[in-house]
Design a protein that fits this description.
The chain has helices spanning 3-13, 78-85; strands spanning 17-18, 20-26, 29-35, 38-42, 47-53, 67-72, 100-101, 109-110, 115-127, 130-142, 150-151. By secondary structure, the chain is mainly beta. The strands form 3 sheets. The chain has a 7-stranded antiparallel beta sheet. Strands 1-11 form a two-stranded antiparallel ribbon. The two termini are 17 Å apart.
Length: 159
Amino acid sequence: MTEAERELAAALGRIPSGIFVLTLKRGQVETGMLASWVQQCSFQPPQISVAVQRQRPLIGLLTAGSAFTLNVLDAAQTDMIVHFGRGFSLDQPAFTGLDLLRDQDNGPILSESLAYLTCEVAGRCAAGDHDVFIGTIKAGRVLGEGQPMIHVRKSGMHY
């Protein structure tokens, strides 16, 4: 890597992002993943954008109109980074040992999360090595007091 590329990577890494857990349920499949590239992108209707790497097993389940839940992690919930950081195949249990609130139509809600949003996929577009999903927010609730988890990377070229 050249010096200019290192400087670019360092500068790009300074863009802060939250740390979230995206969850979903389709039939017998319940799974989740860490998501860090999430941003509100609309007021009316309220929407968020979520970038998902194409190799993620759950990406095929994020189809137009499908439901998902975005769990906002508290700054102290570093155990969730460890739990969800390795990723899960669709046949692996993703929520073993976690306290959940079940929602029949959306993904599981992490009961210890700071807040959650239930969403419906409204759009998808390719963005380099990720796809960006637009989720229309259907409901949301704050579950606790605290500060959301924020992450600043040393390099903007990898997680």
